[in-house]
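[Automated response] Your request has been received and processed.

Submitted sequence:
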Amino acid sequence: MIMQNGNLAYLDDKAMENYIIEQCTGLKDKNGNLIYDGDLLKIEGQIYSVIVDDNGLRCVCLKNNPMFYRDFYEWHDFVRCEYIKKSEVIGNIHQNKELLK
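Generated structure:
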């Protein structure tokens, strides 16, 4: 079951081929947009990918950033350091592959 144009819709197996299920983190970016697994965030000029897996929730920097001492951060580091308030969802890994380069 999904929301489609404000209405509940049921999907069969064939229809599900057109959808990718992403987990919501429950957090919002600086514009009030919910942040999902697979989203791409822009934070202080750098692009990060949000990953939710068995190890928890984390952000991975997609390009080398000399400001930070490591390439990924546990999600609580972003929240505690208030990076989340500076973040902006700019796309996701499924629809914006050009941002991954």
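Summary generated for your ticket: DSSP finds two helices and nine strands in the chain. Residues 62 and 100 are 7 Å apart (CA to CA).
If you did not submit this request, please reply to this message.
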